[in-house]
Write a structure and sequence with these properties.
Blueprint lengths: L1 H25 L10 H4 L10 E8 L2 H14 L3 H4 L2 H12 L9 H13 L6 E7 L5 E8 H23 L9 H27 L12 H13 L2 E7 L5 H12 L3 E2 L6 E12 L7 E13 L4 E14 L2 H31 L3
Parallel strand pairs: 4-5, 4-6
Antiparallel strand pairs: 1-3, 2-3, 6-7, 7-8
Helix pairs in contact: 5-6, 5-8, 7-8, 8-9, 10-11
């Protein structure tokens, strides 16, 4: 009898399990969410009066978001998109500084986001959706009022910084520090031009009456400062003053005056030549070394150290020496100014 009861019990358990499993196995898969209205028209969701919006699509979410941001940026026109890279670099540097606006969380976050997403400040990804066929869609949005405020504050803070940079004494205006200050002001002015164009699209008419200076305005001032900075050039071990001539020409091309013994700034250099032997070659090799220091004679501080070296060869020793000096001349002419500018901008007083 117990065996029969056990059989009934087993049959009952199996029946219950089948009753539970069959509906589950036969149920239909969850319904796919319908396409959101913003996919075909972002302004069906975001009020055009308060927002700028664009949609992007792609095989992956990241790709869709990048396309959406690119489409949003394109609303501002080529004149903005072609220059935003400079603004990103500038914004990233300022965001890491002690500038007063960088302490404001909303502005700092907007700048940080723009750098990370490679897009305009104020742009945000608001929605994402994956369609049944696997395509991803994303919407990028800029809140007009919030973004206009961010750009207004960026412009105002830049103008304050420019004012500090260019408020120089007569002595400072005839120094390398003054020259660099005006070049920094030029970078900020260029960023302001971009910010103003973006703000004018976000909030039409918001920049009416504003007369922002351009980067070229400040570069002209920098060029004038350069013309008032004489630099004395001396080179030890020179051959027919060829290395001195190369340095002098490079400085003259930038607008500096050279020569004289009473200059505040002096470029002192040396040329060193030595023969280098290599086995199994018919050539005579000459290694050249040029060491140069741009010095502020009032402090005896080195403003810009410069060094180049290489070797040149020829079957004739005299011609090998000539080629070495010639190579040094060409290198100085080609790179000295750019190297000096990059060094001064990076290492000068903040």
């Amino acid at each position: 009898m117990s065996t029969i009861k056990n059989c009934y019990l087993i049959i009952t358990v199996i029946a219950v399990a089948i009753a539970v499993l069959v509906p589950a196995c036969g149920s239909a898969p969850p319904a796919v969410k319908a396409e959101p209205a913003w996919v075909s028209d972002p302004y069906a969701v975001y009020n055009r009066a308060f927002s700028l919006a664009a949609v992007g699509s792609g095989s992956g979410r990241d790709n869709a978001e990048k396309v959406a941001l690119a489409n949003l940026t394109a609303i501002f026109g080529q004149s903005v998109t072609a220059e935003t890279k400079t603004s990103y670099s500038y914004s990233q540097a300022v965001a890491a500084s002690s500038s007063s606006w960088s302490e404001k969380s909303d502005i700092a976050q907007a700048v940080k986001t723009s750098v990370a997403m490679d897009t305009l400040i104020g742009a945000e990804i608001k929605d994402v959706w994956r369609s049944p066929d696997g395509t991803w869609y994303a919407s990028a949005v800029m809140d007009r009022a919030k973004t206009s405020m961010i750009y207004r504050e960026l412009i105002e803070q830049n103008l304050k910084t420019i004012s500090v940079l260019t408020n120089l004494s007569a002595a400072e205006r005839q120094s390398f520090d003054g020259f660099i200050n005006y070049y920094r002001a030029a970078d900020l002015a260029e960023a302001n031009q971009v910010f103003a164009r973006v703000r004018n699209v976000i909030s039409p008419g918001s920049m009416a009456g504003e007369n922002l200076k351009t980067g070229d305005d400040y570069r002209l001032e920098a060029a004038q400062i350069v013309r008032n900075i004489p630099i004395a050039v001396t080179v030890n071990g020179d051959r027919q003053n060829r290395i001195k001539g190369a340095f002098s020409s490079a400085l003259a091309d930038a607008g500096f005056r050279t020569g004289g013994s009473g200059s505040r700034y002096a470029l002192t250099a040396s040329l060193f030549l030595e023969e280098v032997s290599y086995p199994n070659t018919p050539y005579r090799w000459i290694r050249y070394v040029v060491d140069a220091n741009l010095i502020d004679t009032t402090t005896e501080m080195v403003i810009f150290p410069y060094n180049i070296n290489d070797r040149e060869g020829h079957t004739n020793l005299s011609e090998a020496e000539n080629r070495a000096v010639q190579a040094a001349e060409k290198k100085i002419s080609a790179e000295y100014l750019d190297a000096m500018g990059a060094f001064l901008t990076k290492n000068s007083k903040k």
